[in-house]
């Protein structure tokens, strides 16, 4: 699983969330950088968020390991529910995490893309559309699990801070995205035009990030701030232990 690609999404998503406070608008009085700084601070205090990624970039579509779509509802307690779809017919998988317990449900296309020859068919037949259950630090699961941890996203941004390009951010005219009144903040990331949509009302939070240039076409959206992650987990009948998978497919 492409850890760098997922971390890049997290870093780009550096501005979101807020505590629940009475809304008021002061966007006209703030610079683009001030809006970004405030949104950054609220992100670092976030308890949970739903993050959606749509990536139609050429390099992503052609990769069997890079996610072209993610829909993750995650929090700081290690809870997560979501789905990932991979490029180049790499398949998809469902993720459920409650603390240190993890369930992954890959589809047949995923197995075929990840395992050579007939091993993909063998794996799909053995798992039989069940979830693989194991620990979040299991060697077979941990790379995928990193995509499902809000702390990882926050820590990465806390280390990187605002990029030097943020000084060139400019404010656009207020508009609406997914029903929210937002201020577009236009700038560049890695030399490519990017737009961050931050709520007009205070506390300021990110609603979406878009980046579109030659070979790049991504959009990340955020919702369900500080809402509880759904707590239902797969039943024993719906699951197979990761050690059984390792024994049957990898020789123990």
Write the layout of secondary structure elements.
Elements: H1 3-12, E1 24-25, H2 32-44, E2 48-55, H3 58-61, E3 67-75, E4 79-86, E5 92-98, E6 101-106, H4 108-114, H5 119-127, E7 131-135, H6 142-145, H7 150-160, E8 170-171, E9 175-177, E10 180-189, E11 192-199, E12 201-202, E13 206-213, E14 216-223, E15 239-241, H8 242-250
Parallel strand pairs: 7-15
Antiparallel strand pairs: 1-12, 2-3, 2-14, 3-4, 4-5, 5-6, 6-7, 8-10, 9-10, 10-11, 11-13, 13-14
Helix pairs in contact: 4-5
Which structural traits does this protein have?
alpha+beta, two-stranded antiparallel sheet, elongated, 252 residues, 13-stranded mixed beta sheet, disordered N terminus
Shape: elongated
Structural class: alpha+beta
Number of strands: 15
Proportion of residues in helical segments: 25-40%
What's the helix-strand series?
A: HEHEHEEEEHHEHHEEEEEEEEH
Rounded radius of gyration (Å): 19 Å
Give the biggest beta sheet.
13 strands, mixed
Mean pLDDT: 83
Helix count equals 8
Beta-strand portion reads 35-45%
Low-confidence parts = 1-23, 161-165
How many angstroms does the end-to-end distance come to? Answer: 22 Å
Structure description:
With 252 residues, the protein is an alpha+beta fold. 27% of the residues lie in helices and 35% in strands. The chain has eight helices and 15 strands. It has helices at 3-12, 32-44, 58-61, 108-114, 119-127, 142-145, 150-160, 242-250; strands at 24-25, 48-55, 67-75, 79-86, 92-98, 101-106, 131-135, 170-171, 175-177, 180-189, 192-199, 201-202, 206-213, 216-223, 239-241. It is elongated and about 60 Å long. Mean pLDDT is 83; it is low at 1-23 and 161-165.
């Amino acid at each position: 699983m492409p850890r760098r690609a997922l971390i890049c999404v997290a870093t780009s998503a550096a501005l979101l969330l807020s505590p629940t406070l009475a809304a008021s608008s002061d966007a006209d009085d703030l610079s683009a950088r001030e809006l970004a700084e405030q949104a950054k601070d609220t992100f670092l205090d976030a308890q949970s968020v739903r993050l959606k990624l749509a990536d139609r970039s050429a390099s992503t579509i052609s990769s069997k390991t890079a996610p072209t779509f993610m829909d993750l509802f995650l929090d700081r307690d290690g809870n997560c529910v979501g789905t990932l779809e991979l490029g180049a017919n790499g398949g998809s998988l469902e993720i459920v995490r409650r603390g240190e317990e993890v369930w992954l449900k890959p589809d047949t296309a995923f197995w075929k893309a990840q395992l050579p020859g007939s091993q993909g068919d063998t794996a799909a037949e053995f798992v039989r559309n069940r979830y693989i259950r194991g620990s979040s630090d299991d060697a077979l699961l941990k790379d995928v699990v990193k995509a499902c941890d809000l702390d990882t996203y926050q820590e990465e941004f806390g280390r990187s801070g605002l990029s030097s390009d943020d000084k060139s951010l400019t404010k656009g005219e207020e508009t609406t995205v997914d029903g929210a009144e937002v201020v577009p903040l236009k700038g560049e990331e890695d030399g490519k035009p990017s737009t961050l949509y931050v709520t007009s009302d205070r506390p300021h939070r990110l609603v979406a990030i878009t980046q579109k240039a030659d070979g790049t076409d991504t959009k990340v959206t955020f919702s369900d701030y500080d809402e509880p992650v759904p707590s239902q987990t797969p039943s024993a009948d719906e699951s197979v232990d990761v050690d059984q998978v390792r024994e049957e497919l990898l020789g123990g």
